[in-house]
Amino acid sequence: MLTNLRNSVTFQKTHLFIEKLNKNKVFLTKENKADIIRSTLNNNQIKWIATDQDIYNFLLPIYYDCSDLLTEQEQFEFETLMNISHSFTFSN
Predict the structure, then answer these.
(1) Is 86 inside any structural domain?
(2) Distances, alpha carbon 69 to alpha carbons 23, 38, 66, 75, 78, in Å
(3) Number of structural domains in the chain
């Protein structure tokens, strides 16, 4: 299912994959969650609808569960995308 989400090419499929993952989120590892966040940043089909209520409600808790596995740049990009306050001061 993670591969399907990562490679999703339509908004409809993205919503469907997120819905399925949401039903099984208890089985997601911390690494799976980081992969979902990275997929969000790298796939425009996910990125463009990330603030749709169902996607947002799925992604935000996942982000907080795995943010320590992400680079500062990934954290910054995700927090900017989701319009949430940055949890750190970005340094070059």
Answers:
(1) no
(2) 23, 11, 6, 9, 13
(3) 1
Q: Let me know if residue 68 belongs to a domain.
A: yes
In this structure, what token pair is assigned to residue 15? 């919503």
Residue with structure tokens 């750190």?
A: 88
35-82 per-position pLDDT tens digit = 999 999 999 999 999 999 999 999 999 999 999 999 999 999 999 999
Q: Which of 27, 31, 72, 54 is closest to 39 using CA atoms? A: 31
Site of tokens 């908004």: 11
Three-class secondary structure of residue 16 per DSSP: helix
pTM comes to 0.88
Write the CB contacts of 4 (distance below 8 Å, at least 6 apart in sequence).
13, 17
91 belongs to a structural domain: no
Helix (H, G, I), strand (E, B) or coil at 9: coil
CA separation for the pair 66, 18 (Å, rounded)? 17
Residue 35 to residue 53: CA distance in whole angstroms: 20
